[in-house]
Amino acid sequence: MKQDMIVILDLGSTENTVVARAIRDMGVYSEIHPHDITVDGLKALDNVKGIILNGGENRVVDGKAVDIDPALYDCGYPVMAINHPTAKCEQKFDSVPAQEVLKDFVLNQCKAETNWNMKNFIEDQVELIRRQVGDKKVLLALSGGVDSSVVAAMLIKAIGQQLVCVHVNHGLMRKNESESVVEVFQNQLHANLIYVDATERFLGKLEGVADPEQKRKIIGGEFIRVFEEEARKLDGIHFLGQGTIYPDIIESGTKTAKMVKSHHNVGGLPEDLQFELVEPLKQLFKDEVRACGIELGLPASMVYRQPFPGPGLGVRCLGAITRDRLEAVRESDAILREEFEKAGLDKKVWQYFTVVPDFKSVGMKNHARCFEYMVIIRAINTIDAMTASIEKVDWDVLEKITNRILNEVENVNRVCYDMSPKPPATIEFE
User: Where do the domains of the chain lie?
Assistant: First the structure.
């Protein structure tokens, strides 16, 4: 890392990311580390210019307030404390500091340079990837989601054809998503891409399965098996690319003692994994991942892709999946996304999608009675996905979406708008 760095030591704060983001917004790189980092551990970091001690409600563990190694005060770095400050730290504040106070500490006292930006980050990562991988090959599961797509673009820039991407179409993707992956990565970026159409395999395994958890397990397990089968056909793979991002690291290893969880790079990876991991995005927050993707030349439609559950449309086709309802979900979702984009809601609403339940209602079509499915529209806003509020979509927009769904989607005679916040509802239906 060529950029200057401010290190935030977590002494129980719930606002570590607020401080980290404020510093990065100044153009200075910042990282959050556990309070018990050693002097050697601190000095092993590149270009540290200052230390912020960030106390908070979780600082007391087993009746005792945690603190840093006293030797860190004598390392020669400027130190500032926020909340629960210690006697040895001369500069103290009672809460997250105002922007100008934080800016004065970072730029004037620490003399950190404002050289944190995506162009420099990408240059650093390309160099690090080439140094790590050498002339070996990297395998990457390319879902089409923003994290795996940006990792793929980064690795293509760094090592080109040494990257082998595997895209598994399980038949539960949104409309044209697999085609988009192939177009961008194979035809535009000329990636070494293996495309696997496993639609029939997945839908066969899911036939008659109504329980949401069972559906998730079947989809997740089958995906791993397909990926492993493709990997076994390849020779010379030494590395596994992963879309780990910074919140994954923070949640698993930077809080006070009673909050620490075991860190796993990716859930489900075996402990005896034979590959070395390549994780070029592990220092980025989600919005920074998107900025990185734009800088790498990925299309905005891919970079700003809506959050999408791992089982795909399998948990939006409620109950046992049938092909007619799966198609109704796919087509109605495409209409919703198209109309939200026209109305400028695609950048305003955090997540929006359609679901089709596994029951029918009576309706009228072509002057005759019909018995068909309903489509439910859900549009929510959230900061942390722990709670969510309903987007108050303009009535004219909803009416246009409803008319298009009823006229263009087969086997549908009713459209509803979900008004349930989280809690008591959840974001997804299953």
Answer: 5-109, 118-300, 316-417
pLDDT of residue 254: 47
Count of other CB atoms within 10 angstroms of residue 373: 23
Q: What would the pLDDT profile of 125-150 be if each residue is shown by its tens digit?
A: 999 999 999 999 999 999 888 899 99
Q: What angle do CA 34, 39, 43 make, to 5 degrees?
A: 95
Question: Taking CA 13 as the corner, what is the angle to CA 8 and CA 15, rounded to the nearest 5 degrees?
Answer: 80
Binding-site annotation: residue ranges for ATP:
143-149
Distance of CA 140 to the CA centre of its chain: 16
172 contacts 311 by C-beta, under 8 angstroms: yes
Q: How far apart are CA 302 and CA 174, in angstroms?
A: 12
Cα angle 292, 296, 300 (rounded to 5 degrees) comes to 75
**pLDDT at 417 exceeding the cut of 90:** yes
CA distances from 133 to 79, 107, 114, 127, 311 (A): 37, 36, 30, 10, 31
**Tokens standing for residue 31:** 């990282």
> What span, in angstroms and rounded, lies between the C-alpha atoms of 390 and 8?
35
Determine the Cα–Cα distance for residues 404 and 415; give it in Å rounded to an integer. Answer: 10
Q: What is the pTM of this model?
A: 0.78
Identify whether the C-beta of residue 140 lies closer than 8 Å to the C-beta of residue 167.
no
Question: Is there a contact between 260 and 161 (Cβ–Cβ < 8 Å)?
Answer: no
Domain range 5-109, its CATH number among 3.10.20.580, 3.40.50.300, 3.40.50.2300, 3.40.50.880: 3.40.50.880
| DSSP at 356 | B
Binding residue positions: 143-149
* pLDDT recorded at residue 267: 44
Q: Quick one: CATH architecture of 118-300?
A: 3-Layer(aba) Sandwich (3.40)
The whole-angstrom separation of Cα 37 and Cα 49 is: 16
What DSSP letter does each residue of 137-167 carry, written as one string?
EEEEE--SSHHHHHHHHHHHHHHGGGEEEEE
pLDDT per position as a tens digit, 239-270: 999 888 887 777 665 444 333 323 333 444 55
In 1-135 the beta strands, taken as DSSP E runs, fall at 5-11, 29-34, 48-55, 60-61, 64-65, 79-82, 91-93
